[in-house]
Specification:
Blueprint: E1 5-10, H1 14-29, E2 33-35, E3 43-48, H2 53-67, E4 71-76, H3 77-81, E5 91-95, H4 102-113, E6 119-121, E7 146-153, H5 164-168, E8 172-173, H6 176-188, E9 193-198, H7 209-216, E10 224-227, H8 237-244, E11 252-258, H9 262-268, H10 274-287, E12 292-299, H11 306-318, E13 321-328, H12 346-371, E14 375-384, E15 387-392, E16 397-401, E17 410-418, E18 423-427, H13 431-434
Parallel strand pairs: 1-2, 1-3, 3-4, 4-5, 5-6, 7-9, 9-10, 11-12, 12-13, 16-18
Antiparallel strand pairs: 7-8, 14-15, 14-17, 15-16, 17-18
Length: 435
């Protein structure tokens, strides 16, 4: 008899992806066939997102599409804060962000009993414990050579534009022992690179984050270690001492900046100012001179002036930020910023965002121009038309002619050029290969 199939669809962040992956493994252990492909299934699980109003709209849209094909189980941030999902026909289970794995028991029970009652498992995130979800292979959602490990959940921040603390609750962290054990399992499965992720990675608090990285760097066989987005406040002298001493820690740090103007940062309720940003980036480069910096930026926050926008743009060029994940401010119902006066017209937000992206692309090109003639290592993530493609140490995508190369190999290349999207390189040959 063929196993029942469960389509698992995930919107939003890496944490959601990680949690969906863990749920996939739990279902398969019970005899179900879990898939993320757009195929007809016996059941569907939709792991929703609510970071923006658009994310919530897309979550409802996806649930409706799945409900047109079969019974749907809804979990995640959007269903944590919105009751809309209960009214969608064929939705048989609604959970939030607390006890996400309960969806597995609910689906199993529904499969055996076929009850038509909608189960409401949305509960308060107040004092929520850390939910231990383990991965053994990560084969369902991750690439063949890079995997995420969730190390914490929740956020204690009070950023005026953000709804996520209401969805995810307060900070709680996973034990270092569980994280290390999972890293060891994943490395044995062939994963070369691990990315530590969470709702607020820098808020990890079981042990100092730098100490965790030092301990992970000793996992036998782990070649690369990266971090998710960090607040500038996590960048301390001790943190940099810890991570710079780890050979597998990659020279790339992504900072959640949002702005480089003091007045706007204060309105956003961000816990640092422009000078702090410059000081932290300087500290990073004092320990890791070749470290590439990328950043999140919100453009067109309420009352932001043209001069304040330009101050942020200039700061990013002075900081030599090689990549900016920039997006126009979007009102999020339920946040203080959504009711602020001085809303910037949407066409101005869009225009500023386009200007910032163009400016930062120019910075990126100049940075990569300075890399030419140097070498870097690339983890091959895919091979297309004879070319190996992957990310180099500095987290810039690169490609080169692949001769006898395989996905998961780490190859050293000379940097020849930049085509606007990827570094173009050629393999550094050993003395034996030249003979």
């Amino acid at each position: 008899m063929k196993n029942k199939t469960v389509g698992i669809y995930t919107l939003g962040c890496r944490v959601n992806q990680y949690e969906s992956c863990a749920i996939s493994e739990m279902l398969e252990a019970l005899g179900f066939e879990a898939t993320g492909k757009n195929t007809q299934c016996d059941y569907y699980i939709v792991n929703t997102c609510a970071v923006t109003a658009e994310s919530e709209r897309k979550s409802r849209q996806l649930v409706r599409r799945c409900a047109a094909k079969g019974k749907v189980f809804v979990i995640g941030c959007a269903s944590q804060i919105s009751a809309d999902f209960f009214d969608i026909e064929n939705v048989v289970y609604v959970g939030g962000c607390r006890d996400k794995s309960a969806v597995v028991e609910a689906l199993t029970k529904y499969d055996s009993e076929n009850s038509e009652n909608v189960i409401n498992n949305v509960t308060s995130m107040d004092n929520a414990p850390y939910e231990e979800l383990n991965l053994s292979s990560a084969e369902h959602l991750f690439s063949e050579c890079r995997a995420f490990i969730k190390i914490q959940d929740g956020c204690n921040g009070k950023c005026s534009y953000c709804i996520i603390p209401k969805c995810r609750g307060k900070v709680r962290s996973r034990s270092a022992e569980e994280i290390i054990a999972e890293a060891e399992r994943l490395v044995k499965c062939g994963y070369q690179e691990i990315i530590l992720t969470g709702i607020e990675v820098g808020a990890y608090n079981k042990i100092p984050l730098g100490e965790l990285i030092k301990r992970l760097s000793k996992v036998e066989g782990l070649k690369r270690l990266r971090l998710g987005s960090l607040s500038p406040n996590i960048i301390t002298e001790q943190f940099m001492k810890d991570v710079s001493g780890c050979e597998c820690f990659m020279p790339h740090i992504h900072l959640s900046l949002q702005s480089c103007n003091d007045r706007v940062l204060k309105l956003m309720c961000r816990p640092y100012r422009k000078q702090d940003i410059f000081d932290r980036v300087s500290l990073i480069r004092s320990y890791i001179p070749n470290c590439s910096i990328s950043a999140d930026i919100i453009v067109g926050f309420p009352t932001e002036t043209e001069a304040e926008f330009e101050e942020t743009a200039l700061a990013l060029t002075e900081l030599k930020v090689f990549h900016v994940h920039s997006f126009p401010y979007s009102e999020r119902k339920g946040t203080p910023a959504a009711t602020m006066e001085g809303s910037i017209p949407k066409h101005i937000r869009t225009e500023r965002n386009a200007r910032l992206i163009a400016l930062c692309n120019g910075v990126k090109e100049r940075i990569i121009e300075s890399y030419k003639g140097n070498t870097t290592s690339v983890l091959i993530e895919k091979i297309e038309n004879g070319r190996a493609i992957g990310h180099c140490n500095e987290f810039i995508e690169a490609q080169f002619i692949a001769e006898d190369a395989n996905i998961g190999d780490i190859i050293e290349i000379f940097i020849d050029s930049y085509n606007g999207a990827r570094i173009e390189g050629r393999v550094v040959k050993t003395e034996e290969q030249y003979e």
